[in-house]
Specification:
single chain; two-stranded antiparallel sheet; 8-stranded antiparallel β-sheet; mainly beta; 1 helix
Length: about 140
C-alpha cells in the first residue's frame, strides 16, 4: 500500500465511528526495559517487561464523542470498550489495530476564539493491542 494522507484514518470506539470528530490519533505501545548490572565484568543484560499501549486522541467537541468518552470516564465502574484503529483507512489489507480499552482521562476545552475540543487517553486492557488487517471494510 502506498503512502496515504492521515485524513483517511478511522477510529471506532464502542462500535461508534468517531473519525469525523477527530484531529489526531497517537498510538504508543511501549515496554519497560531494565538494566541488569552484573559482577565480574560481564556486560549489562536487559530485562524486558510486557507491552502496554495507550492511545492519545485529540478531536473537536461534539455530543457524540462526549457521550462515549465522558460517560466512560465518569462511570463508577470502569469498563473497557472495543476499539478499532485504521491509520490508512479500511481498505482491504490496510493495517488495523483493535482490542478493548479503558478511558484513562478525558479533557474538554473551550475558549472564545476556537471551536471546542477534547483530548482523551485510552489505555488498552490486559488482552492487548492486536495488529491485523481490514477485510471488506470491517
Amino acid at each position: 500500500m502506498a503512502f496515504q494522507s492521515g485524513g483517511v484514518a478511522v477510529f471506532l470506539y464502542g462500535g461508534t465511528n468517531v473519525s469525523t470528530y477527530l484531529k489526531s490519533v497517537t498510538m504508543t505501545p511501549s515496554r519497560e526495559i531494565k538494566d541488569l548490572k552484573r559482577l565480574g565484568g560481564a556486560q549489562m543484560a536487559k530485562i524486558t517487561d510486557v507491552v502496554g499501549t495507550e492511545y492519545k486522541i485529540e478531536g473537536w467537541f461534539d455530543p457524540i464523542p462526549d457521550a462515549l468518552f465522558g460517560t466512560a470516564v465518569l462511570s463508577g465502574t470502569p469498563i473497557a470498550d472495543t476499539f478499532k484503529y485504521g491509520p490508512q483507512g479500511t481498505a482491504n489489507n490496510a493495517p488495523k489495530y483493535s482490542g478493548n480499552a479503558y478511558v484513562a482521562d478525558y479533557e474538554v476545552s473551550t475558549d472564545a476564539e476556537d471551536p471546542g475540543s477534547f483530548t482523551v487517553t485510552l489505555a488498552v486492557d490486559e488482552n492487548g493491542n492486536t495488529r491485523g488487517t481490514w477485510s471488506g471494510g470491517a
